[in-house]
Design a protein that fits this description.
- The chain is an alpha+beta fold and 93 residues long.
- It has one domain (5-92): Ribonuclease toxin, BrnT, of type II toxin-antitoxin system (Nuclear Transport Factor 2, Chain: A, Roll), CATH 3.10.450.
- Helix content is 31%, strand content 32%.
- It contains three helices and five strands; from the N terminus they run E-H-H-E-E-E-E-H.
- It has helices at residues 10-20, 24-32, 84-92; strands at 5-7, 39-42, 50-55, 61-68, 73-81.
- It has a five-stranded mixed beta sheet, with helices on both faces.
- It is globular.
Length: 93
């Protein structure tokens, strides 16, 4: 998958902050952090969606769910801290 340009609605931005204390800046850092690879795969839970696993510049481990659209754009679904199981899988590969 090429570089992803996320579209983030104000509603989603407010939700991920209120529910998970994840900022839009942190979400963008995961995709721009050259020190740590972002790992993207198809979601098993939701049709036509993907999950990305990566780290922010500060080292926070995040899971990001998004919906690909046209020409490299995607709509952000949600973002949260990785679970212990997700983090273990992320670090293993």
């Amino acid at each position: 998958m090429n570089k992803i340009r996320l579209r983030i609605s104000s509603k989603t931005e407010a939700k991920i902050w209120a529910k998970h204390k994840v900022s839009v800046q942190e979400v963008q850092e995961v995709f721009n952090n050259e020190e740590y690879q972002v790992k993207i795969r198809r979601s098993d839970a939701v049709a036509d969606s993907y999950t990305a696993f990566g780290r922010t510049f500060a080292g926070r481990y995040l899971m990001i769910a998004f919906f690909p659209k046209e020409r490299g754009y995607a709509n952000l679904g949600t973002s949260r801290e990785m679970t212990a199981r997700e983090r273990k899988r992320y670090e293993r590969k």
